[in-house]
Every structure is written in structure tokens, then in C-alpha cells.
């Protein structure tokens, strides 16, 4: 077999406007891109090192580069890497390389159904209630909005956006900002506002507290779920899980996580970090398995990469082979 070369680089993609959540703000997507080549074909993968999970761009690049000459197939990766951004970028690059080598689309190689176009959530960053309402009203063609919340003032934020967009489907993401003392009241407010889903209301580690509240709105684990191994302890605390390739360790780990969640009757959200279409493309292969997709990263960029995913009125279409897979 021809020896493979593995190259990794950092890229910075400016955002249209600041992306603000309860843990802070960013004005650009900082990603790691991996290219795996056999000399005739090249596969690409993209990942986002996330400080919440102890990652940074420098460390992920060093990890990926250290594997040069030590891995030759996708199945080799799990012997060297734990789930995270490095494994995601490499795993997706190997899937893409196999697709390019064989001429078979990645979804077929993975045994998945043909990917389908689906409405993606569009994120409204954390801000004052009136500002979030104004931003929601500014995108009347987008039917599914995800509100970033932050604790104090969240009741007003939900009510303001609902008043501004009575027609929209709404999801909310607290990014661990609620407390055991406030969660029940805020869940009740969310129900009054017709919210479809509440994502990660409490800090990861406080999952047990959710067993003892009335969940009038389904609650989705994000920071509390990374891989299939996490599913058993979430039963009874959550109703849904957010599957992100950066947490699960690529498409391979994400498929395993989706299957484990389905066996326990969890609803499925397919999500991603803020990144380009290259990172989102593999996640789109799981859209048909999902109750919601939250893959709006490319829409938040000032510009996307060449052959980026097509999105029309919030409907995201599967990737073309020129982009990935």
C-alpha cells in the first residue's frame, strides 16, 4: 500500500458578527484542517478545538502531526487518539480519502441512508432581550431559531423573541448557565413560550438534578454527552442528545453515538461548532437520523470555503463530492 502523508494546518474564518454565548464571545472560527493523501487522492477533514474541553489549536496540530507514519487506515486512529477535535479531523479526512479512492459516496461506505436536505436551526447570539428579538425579526425567512441564553434575563429573552416571531419554531441553549434553583421556573417559561427544546440548562455533572423536575419541554444534553459510552448515565435526566463530531471523534464516533441514543429512545440533534462547510458536511450525512439539525456554522461566516454547502431559506442541502465525501 502506498505510504500516506498527513498534513495539518490552522485556518481562521471571520464571522459576520460576534458569536456570543454564556461563556464568552468570538469574532472568528479557528479551525484545524487535515489533508491525508496517498499521492493520487486527497481526503480532507476539519475540526474545531474547543477550550471548554481543554483543547487548543496548537495542541491539536501537534497531536495530528505526531501521527505521521503511524496510521495508515481510519481504523488505526482509535488506537492512538481519544475522541476530540484531532480524531474528528483525521477520521473525516480518512472517510473522504476512501470516497475519493473508490468513487463511492461516504454515506454509502458508512452504510447510511442517502442524506437529505433539512431545515437547520439558525443561532441568535446571547444579547439583550430587545436586541435578540430584533435579530429574530430580521430573518423572517428562517423558520427554526436557536436562542443562546445566559442565566439572568433569560425569561425576558424568551418572551421577547416569541413576541417578535410568533411564527417561528424556537430552541434554546443555556450552555450550562442555569442553576438548580432557577431551572424549574425557566422550563415553565419555555413551555409558555412554545419552545421545542432546551439544551444543556445545567452544568455538566448536575445531570441528576434534572430527574427531579417537571420537564414540560424536552431537555437535550450537549456538554454532558460526548460518546456512546455516556448514554446509559443520561437516561432519565435528558430527553435528547446533541451529537457533535468534534466531541464524538468524527463521523465514526457520531454514528455509534446516534445508534446508542436511539436504542434508549433519545431524540437526536445533530450539531457542530462554528466552522466552515468542510466541518459540517460529514454531519449532514446524519441529518436523516435527526429530529433537529443545528449546522448553521457556515451561515455565521463572513464567507465560506469553495464548494460550500447550499442553504436556501434555512434548508441545508447535502454536500457535493467536490467539498467532501
TrEMBL record:
The active site is at 148 (proton acceptor), 244 (proton acceptor). Mg(2+) binds at residues 173, 199, 222. Binds 1 Mg(2+) ion per subunit. Its cofactor is Mg(2+). SUPFAM superfamilies: Enolase C-terminal domain-like, Enolase N-terminal domain-like. Its EC number is 5.1.1.-. One of its GO terms (molecular function) is racemase and epimerase activity, acting on amino acids and derivatives. Keywords: Isomerase, Magnesium, Metal-binding. It holds the Pfam family MR_MLE_N. InterPro entries: DgoD-like (IPR034593), Dipeptide_epimerase (IPR034603), Enolase-like_C_sf (IPR036849), Enolase-like_N (IPR029017), Enolase_C-like (IPR029065), Mandelate_racemase_C (IPR013342), Mandelate_racemase_N_dom (IPR013341). Belongs to the mandelate racemase/muconate lactonizing enzyme family. NCBIfam families: racemase_DgcA. This is Dipeptide epimerase.
Amino acid at each position: 500500500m502506498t505510504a500516506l502523508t498527513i498534513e495539518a494546518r490552522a485556518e481562521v474564518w471571520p464571522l459576520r458578527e460576534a458569536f456570543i454565548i454564556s461563556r464568552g464571545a468570538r469574532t472568528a472560527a479557528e479551525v484545524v484542517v487535515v489533508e491525508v493523501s496517498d499521492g493520487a487522492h486527497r481526503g480532507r477533514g476539519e475540526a474545531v478545538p474547543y477550550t471548554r474541553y481543554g483543547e487548543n489549536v496548537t495542541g491539536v496540530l501537534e497531536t495530528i502531526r505526531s501521527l505521521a507514519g503511524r496510521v495508515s487506515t481510519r481504523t488505526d486512529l482509535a488506537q492512538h487518539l481519544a475522541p476530540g477535535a484531532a480524531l474528528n479531523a483525521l477520521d473525516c479526512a480518512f472517510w473522504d480519502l476512501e470516497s475519493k479512492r473508490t468513487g463511492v459516496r461516504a454515506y454509502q461506505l458508512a452504510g447510511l441512508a442517502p442524506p437529505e436536505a433539512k431545515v437547520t436551526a439558525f443561532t441568535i447570539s446571547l444579547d439583550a432581550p430587545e436586541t435578540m428579538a430584533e435579530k429574530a425579526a430580521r430573518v423572517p425567512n428562517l423558520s427554526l431559531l436557536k436562542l443562546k441564553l445566559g442565566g439572568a434575563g433569560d425569561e425576558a429573552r424568551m418572551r421577547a423573541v416569541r413576541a417578535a416571531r410568533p411564527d417561528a419554531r424556537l430552541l434554546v441553549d443555556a450552555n450550562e448557565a442555569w442553576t438548580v434553583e432557577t431551572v424549574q421556573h425557566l422550563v415553565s417559561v419555555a413551555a409558555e413560550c412554545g419552545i421545542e427544546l432546551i439544551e444543556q440548562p445545567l452544568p455538566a455533572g448536575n445531570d441528576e438534578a434534572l430527574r427531579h423536575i417537571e420537564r414540560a419541554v424536552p431537555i437535550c444534553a450537549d456538554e454532558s454527552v460526548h460518546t456512546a459510552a455516556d448514554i446509559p448515565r443520561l437516561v432519565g435526566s435528558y430527553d435528547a442528545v446533541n451529537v457533535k463530531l468534534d466531541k464524538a471523534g468524527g463521523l465514526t464516533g457520531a454514528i455509534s453515538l446516534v445508534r446508542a441514543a436511539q436504542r434508549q429512545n433519545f431524540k437526536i440533534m445533530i450539531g457542530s461548532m462554528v466552522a466552515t462547510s468542510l466541518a459540517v458536511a460529514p454531519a449532514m450525512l446524519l441529518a436523516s437520523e435527526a429530529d433537529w439539525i443545528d449546522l448553521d456554522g457556515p451561515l455565521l461566516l463572513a464567507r465560506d470555503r469553495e464548494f460550500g454547502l447550499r442553504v436556501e431559506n434555512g434548508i441545508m442541502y447535502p454536500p457535493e463530492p467536490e467539498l467532501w465525501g
